[in-house]
Amino acid sequence: MNILGKRYLFFGLSLLLIVPGLIILLSGGMPLSIDFTGGSLLEVSFTNASPAPADLIALYEDQQVEDVQVQTTETGSYLIRSEFLENEVRDAVLSTMQEQFGELTVIRFDSVGPSIGEQVTTRGAMAVAVSSLLVVLFIAWSFRGVENAFRYGVSAILAMIHDVALIFSITAIGGVFLGWEIDSLFLTALLTVIGFSMQDSIVVFDRIRENARIYRRLDFETLVNHSIVQTLQRSINTQLMTVEFLLLALALFGGITLQQFAIVLLVGLLSGTYSSIFIAAPILVIWENREWTTWFKRKAAAA
Amino acid sequence: MLRNLYTRLILILVILAAALWIDLSNKIIIYNPFNDTRLVDRDVTPRLGLDLRGGLQVLLEADVPQDVAVDAESMKTARTIMENRTNALGVSENVLQVAGERRIVGEFPGLKNADEVLAIIQQTGLLEFIDTGDTSLEEGTVVQTDFAPTAESQPDAQTDQTETVIYHTVMTGKDLKTVNVSRDQGKYVIEFTLSSEGAKVFADHTAANIHKYLTIVLDKQVISSPVINTAIPDGAGVIQGNFTQESANALAVQLRYGSLPVPLKVVETRIIGPTLGEDSLNRSLVAGLIGFSIVMLFMGLYYRLPGITADISILLYAAIVFAVFKLIGVTLTLAGIAGFMLSTGSALDANILVFERLKEELRNGKTLKQAFNQAWTRAWPSIRDSNIAALITAAILFWFGSTFGATIVKGFSLTLAMGVVISLFSALFITHTLLALALDWFKPQNLARWIGI
Questions:
Q1: If you classify domain A39-112 with CATH, what class do you get?
Q2: CB of A60 within 8 A of CB of A93?
Q3: Residue range A269-279: average pLDDT?
Q4: Helix H or strand E segment including A80
Q5: What is the mean pLDDT of chain A?
Q6: Which chain B residues are closer than 8 Å to A193 by Cβ?
Q7: pLDDT at A69
Q8: Chain B neighbours among A 162-221 (CB < 8 Å)?
């Protein structure tokens, strides 16, 4: 099986998946949740009434609350987003609602102060940066006996960036069609994908490390291809048959709260396995062959 | 193949028995057989997170300017005080934790009277002795002090005479040692004594400011404004005010348990309705069961005998993980369940890496015994390295979650990390032993049938 031969084809496929979502992100901005921006979210259902969204907005505005958006859900409840609500204002809003529309049930209420949101964003970015840095250092250290250990770390990072870009892309697309948001659960999924993306790359690299000791005369490309093929069964079985099944069950039956989380993890972990085979390992080969020197020549020849 | 096979098996059975015992009971009591004392007495009822049972979560932040440092001791004290206050409300199973340097996260599960709790934890109960120089202030006047000045504007009617004045805080309620109510000439007064440190500050100040006013302020509102008649060197004093017996008692209680060393404000509130929580719990349990069954079926069909031993070891793994969660009191959240499922994936991954190696060695013409011995040794470096990478991520996530009281992130990382560690044990010790035993008992000849090559 020659996987490496088609490496540029796989790069193209990845770009095809990543680029559209990133265009959405860059043009429409990130669908950040109140965890990052600060603000409040009230989900409420009325026993005997179904007020028009405009009435609810008016009710909020009477309390001097701005940036009010109302959304109805499949179950008939209302999702009302607004700026950060102090507890007194929330009480006032809820009691006026009860006066106007009768009995109600608060399904959930989240209110995050603006300063907190800001700090969550910076610390979140820091958490992502620190954990990827530590993992790269760890890989470089763990492969210290191998020639060009540093390349393994960088390739793993590039594969990881691929996975991160892909889940941002998926979330952006989900944001347009399903109303997904980037919240603290997304951050959790993101960090997990980073961890597991490394795990997959390490399994493939470990095989290259081992084979390099056994087949000293083999040229690097054949060696890497051989290692990929050897670990392929493990990758498919671990990812497709086990982890993905567990997450799929969670996405299908796990209820609305976890659905986005499960799908993002599903895509991210799948991408982690894919990128270890089709991104990280090929980059090692491209680096070894210094292929960039021939990229333009090839084009010239084609022209 | 493996030495001490039966010792290993007994060890596994003992661990399993202990795990099952913890899994199935709500309380763990171990008696010391020599005398009748209890060695271990622990409540191990599973704790469900707010997202699974509904409730109120608040994040409080020290209400002092960002550049003012808040010492850890004050935050700890503030936490204890809030715990006492909310316990007094009859709220059960509330959890209050210091998160990071200047925040406290409070969780009140299954709560109906959210407003009451929010009201009581927001009362600072900050007692201050302020130096008002030659002026005596009216009771009820709202003042500003140089201890944690608040940015918000005060109600105007009361601040007319004080709006530009920021009084110096001589001492706060932190220095109070004892507080008692007594009667003095028919009026209720509050007697207090001070800690030695407070007494010194108090003595110095009173000696230097005789005939000046030392005003007593609670949550920036004047309670009384007595004049200093003589220096008070012994750290004992009396607060006189317009007290009834009730108000004197209430104030004394608040001072005794409730004077927060730092003012706090609510910066985040989350309320999860009980129905949403219950629905999530049921659904994720069903999801977990379905996923688990499919995966176990796959392992058995694809890897045959080794697959079945892996299935058994995964079941043991689940029993051990649940027991450990109960024992150290991990709060189960939705994200925690997801973390557990992922670590199960990790556990299976380790097994699969080994089994693939086993098959490979067999295909290369090794005997079953040789292949078995090499499978674990050869698969170990990649299992080790990949699990360390997962642990690094989990540690960073935990740090991130703790700083913000983001219980959901913390729960996920904690369950993931513990799952990864236990999964290593399960793959390297349990599966290894069970498979060795199984090969020993069945002595399989037909490898296609038993191992699936």
A1: alpha beta
A2: yes
A3: 89
A4: strand A78-82
A5: 82
A6: none
A7: 85
A8: 184-185, 187-188, 191-192, 194-196, 198-200, 202-203, 206-207, 209-210
Average pLDDT over residues A294-301: 61
Query: Closest chain B residue to A123 measured between Cα atoms?
Result: B400
B55-123: in CATH 3.20.20.70? no
Give A85-93 contacts, CB < 8 A, sequence gap 24+. Answer: A85/A40, A85/A111, A86/B266, A87/B115, A87/B118, A87/B122, A87/B266, A87/B269, A89/A63, A89/A64, A89/A65, A90/A40, A90/A42, A90/B269, A91/B115, A92/A63, A93/A42, A93/A59, A93/A60, A93/A63, A93/A65
Alpha-carbon gap, residue A290 to A287, rounded angstroms: 5
Instruction: Give the number of other CB atoms < 10 A from CB of residue A210.
Output: 15
**What is the CATH code for A4-33+116-295?**
1.20.1640.10
For domain B5-39+273-450, which architecture applies?
Up-down Bundle (1.20)
Q: What is the pTM of this model?
A: 0.70
Q: Say whether A110 and B270 touch across the interface (CB within 8 A).
A: yes
| C-alpha distance from A22 to closest chain B C-alpha (Å) | 25
Residue that has been written with the tokens 């049921």 in this structure? B282
Which 3-state string (H, E, C) describes chain B?
CCCCHHHHHHHHHHHHHHHHHHHHCCEEEEECCCCCCEEEEEECCCEECHHHHCEEEEEEEECCCCCCCCCHHHHHHHHHHHHHHHHHCCCCCCEEEEECCCEEEEEEECCCCHHHHHHHHHCCCCEEEEECCCCCCCCCCECEECCCCCCCCCCHHHHCCCCCCEEEEEEEHHHEEEEEEEEECCEEEEEEEECHHHHHHHHHHHHHCCCCEEEEEECCEEEECCECCCCCCCCEEEEECCCCHHHHHHHHHHHHHHCCCCCEEEEEEEEECHHHHHHHHHHHHHHHHHHHHHHHHHHHHHHHHHHHHHHHHHHHHHHHHHHHHHHHCCEECHHHHHHHHHHHHHHHHHHHHHHHHHHHHHHCCCCHHHHHHHHHHHHHHHHHHHHHHHHHHHHHHHHHHHHHCCHHHHHHHHHHHHHHHHHHHHHHHHHHHHHHHHHHHHCCCCHHHHCCC
Are the Cβ atoms of A230 and B360 closer than 8 angstroms? yes
Q: Is the pLDDT of residue B14 over 90?
A: yes
- Judge whether A247 is closer than 8 Å to chain B, CB to CB: yes
The residues, any chain, with a CB within 8 Å of residue B345's CB and separated by 6 or more, are A238, A242, A243, A246
What are the sequence ranges of the domains in chain B?
Answer: 5-39+273-450, 55-123, 127-259
Lowest mean pLDDT among A134-138, A244-248, B256-260, B343-347: B256-260
Global ipTM: 0.73
CATH architecture of B127-259: 2-Layer Sandwich (3.30)
**What is the pLDDT, as a whole number, of residue B149?**
43
Domain boundaries, chain A: 4-33+116-295, 39-112
